[in-house]
Give the backbone structure.
Amino acid sequence: MDASAAGHRLTRLDSGARVITQAMPAVRSIALGVFVGAGSRHERDSEAGVSHLLEHLLFKGTERYSSEVIDQTFDGMGAEINAGTDKEATVVYSRFLDQHLERAFDVMSDMVLNPAYPEVDSERQVVLEEIAMYDDEPSDKVHDVLAGAIFGDHPLGRPVIGTADVVSSVPVADIAAYHTGRYVPESIVLAAAGNVDHDRLVELLEAAIAGQETGAALPGPRERATGGQSASAAFAPAPAPLAANVRFEVKQTEQCHLCIGGPGIARADERRHALRVLDAILGGSTSSRLFQEVREKRGLAYAIYSYAGHYADCGQVGIYAGTRPDNVGETLGVIADELARLREHGVSEDELVRARENLKGRTVLAMESTLARMNRLGGSLLLDVPLLSLDDTLAAIDAVSDQDVVALAGELFAPERLSAAGVGADEGAFRAALGALGPTLAAA
């Protein structure tokens, strides 16, 4: 099946794998990504971190290409190859000159489809060091503490990076079984942007799947494994919203790292454009309310921002600040005041226009990058996000009204929906300051 829309081409292979491309004939490069429906949300508790560990092991080599040869191949093309894992997907990607498409694809596809799992123990140690490094970065860790407060024991509440217990002990056979179950054609999207020949890419993927060392490609949706869902959609459904929750991890730090947040909206929710505008006004830019009030006017924090995360059927919003313990109360008080002012008094026309123009400018500038276009194509297709044209995206941003922003702020940042997380040395001071955000958190 082949379809063309919004400047891109899409083909679904008989195996279920999909190829999506956007031609940019004016450039000499190609950004290529292999997206797989394998993330931490797909894992059981006993598998926490397997998706991320497997991503690392893809680079250790196949029967055809050793780890050293993989590195030498991309270095020899003046290119880099990298990968990332999040809660719902893994992607292996590279950007290279168009003349190297077949060689780059051959190595990347073999890595993704046919890992050989050599030197697993040495790579376990690498990931354990990554976990230790992450634990030493409270400004990063506090976001996962907040996710745990919001989603509880659900997989969305776990860190993508996993746990040291699982990473250090999960058997290779279990890692291989996870790969066999998740890295299947109907869970794979091959995305490319640049000076790329769509039809040739389709031929290459068809041949790679047909020659997969683990056997013939699966003929369709894996009904028994996923209960009738496609493999990329097989994960625990979103939990019912939990009561407001507070979590704190004691760590000897100079600052208290704090996050406030709650459930958000799903990735394909029509209000996602309004949430982007809300985020830009609240804390997503240097002219935002939180940046101006907390940092510029009062000097309470170096880092202060808001953010939003989206998943297939739910989402999360959050606000982060890092401040010294004696400033926690004032910082949370300012955040509470700005949330109340937003809910009760709305936004000015100047703020609304500036936020919309900010988003439109960033969107257009990002589309000048082949990597950004490739990521947009692959991520949207794998995760079932409507793939709008650039003009339609800009129109959707322009259509966001002040009423849309205020309504969303009133829902997502209602005091009774908010949870709080902190990492620092003084849990008592953190909990005592939460009263500024309302009685629900104060009592949590």
